[in-house]
Amino acid sequence: MASQQPKSEADSPTELDAAEVERRRKQRDLKRKSRERKKRNLLELQTTAQALELEYKQLFAAKLVREQQQLDTTAAMKSEPNATDIEQPRLVELQEKYKAVRQEMHELREQMTGFKQKLEEYERFIAMLDGHLMGFQDTQTRQEEPTS
Question: What sections of the sequence does the record tag as coiled-coil (predicted)?
């Protein structure tokens, strides 16, 4: 029996060692997977950053091109001072005409409103006259009937 007891004591530390070895192996695997995941995330972030930098450069270049075109356009307009000198008095003239036409339009609308009101009053007057005439005709026919 004495020989069996040391065996069981010897087996216990090896079983613990095996469990410890398995736990350590799992920890190493988890750390390795974590490092791989971090590396993969870092690569994805770098790729995304590069793509965003490229897009920024393209947008910035497009903005510069647009600004240059606007500068060219304004420079071309400024190089022809006679055109703007001629347009300014014409613009003032057109604005005055516009104001006059708007005023006339406003007056015509007021006249139309007045005419509509007068027309409604006239139609009410006609309806009232029709009512009176109908009443008058009824009395005429009543007066003629007894005489016949």
Answer: 91-125
